[in-house]
Amino acid sequence: MTGVPGGDERLSLLLIADAAGDVQLVSELLRQVRAPIDVAVAASVGEARQQLNDVDCVLLDLALPDTHGLDGLRTLLKLARRAAVCVLTGLFDEHLGVAALAEGAQDYLIKSQLNGVSLYRALRYAVERKRADDHNRQLREADLGQAESARLERGLLPQPLMDTDLVAVRSFYRTGRQRGLIGGDFYDVVQSGPDRIHFMVGDVCGHSVEEAALGVGLRVAWRALVLGGVPDDAVLPALEQVLMSERRAPELFATVATLSLELSTGQATLRLAGHPPPLLVHGQHAAPLPAATNRLLGVVPKTPEPYEFLLSPGEALLLYTDGLIEGRSGADRLDIDGLCALIAEPESATVGFSALPAWLVGRAERANGGPLADDVAMLMVSRVVPA
Fold first, then answer.
1. What value does the mean pLDDT take over residues 261-268?
2. Is residue 1 part of a domain?
3. Which one of 90, 135, 163, 176 has the largest count of C-beta atoms within 10 Å of its C-beta?
């Protein structure tokens, strides 16, 4: 007996054939060349169903009692997603072998032309081609996933639509590090007139692409409502209608914080729907605004109560999603008090306005002992001190 060239990896083969002569032929040819292949046998596609998850390759006889022509191959290709599939044909059925390649088989083998070396090589090459095809498919899917995430990111995290030097805005977004994918957090900034600008930060519960797409829809709807001149009190109820009509499941909800600011006077109006209150920051002192938060969007519809305050020059307002405060600080959750304590640290005095959001995430991660699990979106808003 002569051995076959190739690697030392043992392969597992499932031979699907009901004729004892075909089973004996394949087994004997592989034995003659000492092929490193473990062979299992099934007499039909139905019998093979329970064995497909544990094999590298399937060798299918197209002449089976429970299938006709290529029907068995089509069924098998749906079931054996991991295994390479080759077909056995007779000399006068070579056309079926060619058709099998078009259906998705890796190779076809004519029984009367087989020898041990050619059989082993065909099976090993089929396995390698299948692995290469699967690898290329995974790369394509990864590329498509990255492209989809990039499109979602552009939808969730737009450039502020503003034309004024009376207010400074710093936006920030960080994905949950354990997932590395964009989630359902979103923000937007829209100037609706020479003296009025609007801000919004929101979060759709969940972390899949569907939640991210829903976040995009809510952000775009909010921008359209603001630019369309819809009264402030009607914006969030309208946004809730969009959420309830577009969500894939009734348990999906969102939290939103909106802010309207008069540029000339600093008069600001805040509305919260299940969202943590923004922080008013002056130097190293920070405190949450005492605004009443309403129910989550999509749970029990109710118009949020507005909270009015004055944003003075030199003060900043920090709007954020709850991923920033859900990390740990020692034995407890960081929460809003912990976030205020971070801003009060001496180190924060050396951090400028633009760098503060990123610094806060870094400090929250240090307190958490590792990356934050959830996404974080932030908007820093400050009236510019007159020269």
1. 95
2. no
3. 176
